[in-house]
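Sharing in case it's useful to others searching the archive later.

Someone asked me privately for the predicted structure of Putative histidinol dehydrogenase, so I'm posting the question and my answer publicly. Question first, with the sequence:
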Amino acid sequence: MSDPSIFSANSRIFTPASPIEAENLLRPIFDRSEDADAQEVREAVREILYDVRTKGDAGVLKWASSLDGFSGDEKAFAIDPERLPVAWNSLPGNVREAFQEAKKRICDYHVSALSLLHDHLPSPGKAGFRLTPLERVGIYVPGGTAAYPSTVLMTALVAKVAGVKNIVGVTPARNGEVPPSILAAFHLSGVTEVIGIGGVQAIGALAFGTESVMRVDKIVGPGNRFVAEAKRQVFGLVDIDMIAGPTEVVIIADETANPRWVAADLLAQAEHDTRSSAILLTDSLVLAKETAREMDEMLGSLPRSAIATESISRYGYLMVVGGMDEALRLSDRIAPEHLELHVVQPMTLVPRLAHAGAIFIGESSAEVFGDYMYGPSHVLPTSGSARFSSPVSVETFMKRTSLIRGFGSPEEQESMVRMTALLARLEGLEGHARSALQRACLNDKETI
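And my answer, the predicted structure tokens:
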């Protein structure tokens, strides 16, 4: 691990001579999900999931005890619902006030999003669709190097707005204890079923069901690489929101940007995890150097400086590019989870950007506001998956059913019968053709 006392962010300033060189320098970012440990992680996850699937609670207990120091039997998995309001009342008043404001903003945003979604009822000859909330959802809340009550709000509240009736929270109980802030967040979100287990064994319990844990329809929430791999392996048996990788931020900045703000925002991301990435793309070498100086100064007093330093030394970049066009191109190539725009006219860049989980427009819109307060869920696509996937939202907790209703006229029905039978026979499916022909006054052997 890099030594914070001798590390300098200046070592992470890069001035690529060409777009190809820039992409080659960023190769460690693109390859993070397939490092030397990836196969070992897959095999370890497979073993734990097998135990949970075949042994139920006994399998969960085995791994919760060995990995998380869980003590007790399977009867101790469930957190007593009465502990949730106690945890809420134990929080300082100003913390409760901040939680309540966050809840208001999250609910307001997603209620507004829900208002744009409507069933489309069918009419004769015209198909429609229906949107239905999922019945039972599992919310995974990580508990590794830090506690994340914000993740509870950013997932459980969204599920509630979407209309999910049964929500179960899972989070690791370290030595039998779940942080009060997490229990308080579940209480504020209206979730009363909380299971004090985490890791791969929790994902397995939600996906397969055990004697004491009822299986769910979908698992939502971030976690470490083992949790992400577990979600990958159970997908299909249950739905998942996404396969989340390490968190990441890209900041596009010009010479007018405040280097202290840029440095603070980069370190805010880097302190999450040693595999987090924090990238500045700028056309100003002066800004890159000033940002590096500010980062060095801030690292000295950052409580999680060891984590942030390791992250920056491996996956941090202060990259000076030839202009804003190149910065935009590289950002879309990365497809970051978070994208900040520290430029004179940030709104002019938004239409030119195709791939990002969330875009923070203007230097006052720090990514950390999105983590806690702004409203949209902070559970976002990572590792380039913003090219094809979306943040957690009310749609995450709903499913669409197609509705098909008859025909508008006898002539339309006759035409549909003939063409359906024709295409079915083209594919060699005579039974399909005959099913269609039953709806017309034709001999099912008739030549179409």
